[in-house]
Amino acid sequence: MSNRVLIFDTTLRDGEQALAASLTVKEKLQIALALERLGVDVMEVGFPVSSPGDFHSVQTIAKTIKNSRVCALSRALEKDIDAAAQALSVAEQFRIHTFISTSTIHVESKLKRTFDDVLDMAVGAVKYARRFTDDVEFSCEDAGRTPIDNLCRMVEAAIKAGARTINIPDTVGYTVPSEFGGIIQTLFNRVPNIDQAVISVHCHDDLGLSVANSIAAVEMGARQIECTINGIGERAGNCSLEEIAMILATRKGLLDLDTGINAKEIHRTSSLVSQLCNMPIQANKAIVGTNAFSHSSGIHQDGMLKAKNTYEIMTPESIGLNRNNLNMTSRSGRHVIKHRMEEMGYQPGDYDMDSLYEQFLTLADKKGQVFDYDLEALVYMESQAQDDDQYKLQHLMVHSDSTEGVATATVRIAVDGKDFTEAATGNGPVDAAYNAIARATQRQINITNYKLGAKGEGQNALGQVDITAKYNEQMFHGVGLATDVVEASAQALVHVMNLVYRADKVADFKQQIHKERELGGV
Ligand code: KIV
Ligand code: ZN
Fold it and tell me: What are phi and psi of 46, to 5 degrees?
């Protein structure tokens, strides 16, 4: 048996489906490109039948990604498989993933069928998917709670029908490692054609055991792990990719298993996913938490000074976390910035050097010293700005009298290329800025969540504002980053306004198509 474990990333499917605000196509593409660079073998990027937006994003990613296999999800239904195949057909290499529940609880209460009906549906779906590609994956949803005889029958039938990957999900995160490893071992012992498929696992983290269960499974012969960056996903989330990759790398001597993951990309990919998905990472999270490589106790610090391996089983550099002591100021030339970006793993095509340098100089004038995270923040903000942005914040001035609890803000904002200036008061500087923006744009946004944080360390950090807003029953997520937290707040609101504007345009377009269809039908 090969000792290569395939990494199947489902951040953009299982992870994305659990977010409060969906990602835009551009954001999904950014994550897909980061995953490709990270070296995932397969990326599951959506569920095309679920919405035209999902279909479009799967298609866009499928067109762009070359070095990882792109996969889309479908229920065991022909219309789902058709949608997945159509969205993926532009890819160089693709996989169709079809699934149906196999546990008695799901079969009887959710599907209201018999197990034999479900078995027939699974076989039919796999055969149907094979018309489009040789690479078909079949999942037995809720396998962790499926009676083992039924699970063996289902796996054997799906392989016979043509599935080349069989996924065994612990959908509700119920099993414990010895039990889950035992299920995999039984499948290897009892399913006669098991050597014709790769056995995959997909564990949820409801009891905090998703990573342990996945490791138990590979010890028993599973050779694909489904996981997500930072472990995002349904409820308590999925098995986290960075933990799996670093367990297999750090404990290679014990487990003797390899992945194709370029661990140096972990830190950057994790930050990008956290930022775009508006999902902060807990400080003590393994591998990517801010405390994962910091040593607090005096005894530990003393040990570290004497020999790093006293308390460090892997280095921060191994996940691409390079602590930078380089002091960048407005006197730093372009080559310094370019060199620093390269060291952080960015390639020239990832950003526009002219624009980055211009913004760097502006920031350096404001802050004095510029750090790595500032450069990354500038690149991130630039990636969020779109050429067709309807609203652009040009100027913001705020006067606040905190003793009286009133503030006044004046904003100049470009709306479709035309400048509008307005002033308004509020109960604080952010409130006043938001009221002035509402006046200038004639648009009121219902903010459901406002979060102020910091990007970077200490007094030199940038203010980061994340807001979530509800519009026409849809959730939108806007981000602002600036040295001034009121400016960051205004940027976040303008970001949401541009997203809402685009969503309105899409809705108008759909309505127009509907009308044209109706007229055509008369
Ligand atoms: O958790 C699960 O069972 C799933 C399947 C669709 C693979 O996400
Ligand atoms: Zn899942």
Answer: 165, -175
